[in-house]
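Lecture 7 notes: from sequence to structure.
We start with the chain below.
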Amino acid sequence: MHTGASRAVEIHRARKADLPTIIAVDERVTRLPKTDYWRDLFDRFSEREQGRAIFVAEIDGNVVGFAIGEVRAWEFGSPPCGWIFALGVEPEFRERGIGSLLFDALTSFFRSCGVGTVRTMLRREDHLIMSFFRSQGLMAGPFIELEKDISE
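Predicted structure tokens for the same chain:
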């Protein structure tokens, strides 16, 4: 991966050839290997699927970030809206506006699908991603997540 001076960032729909790099970037960002998860997700979110998209950010032909989302409708009584499932940028490329470019690509995609709201979900203690999404204008929405451990 090129780590030199900042170059132009290209945002485009992910291609099958981008998948190994997306998996590697995600693992570096989350510190969790999720190869099978990403392969399955990529198959379901192919470019042919309406209302679903994976975007990548490239610098000099190298993937340095990704964003994935889909339009979901009527879950929990919610009108159709865009959901961002994941957005990650290589740590060494952060603070260059790449995350914002990826967010903008997804929100433009959602608008083209006819929705006017975007949502995401994150861990309360993930202050970095919370700060990022707040900087993009997201705030608490009308729904609250409830959870129960049923492992036993």
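Points to note: Residues 1-5 have pLDDT under 50 and may be disordered. Helices lie at 19-30, 35-44, 98-112, 127-135.
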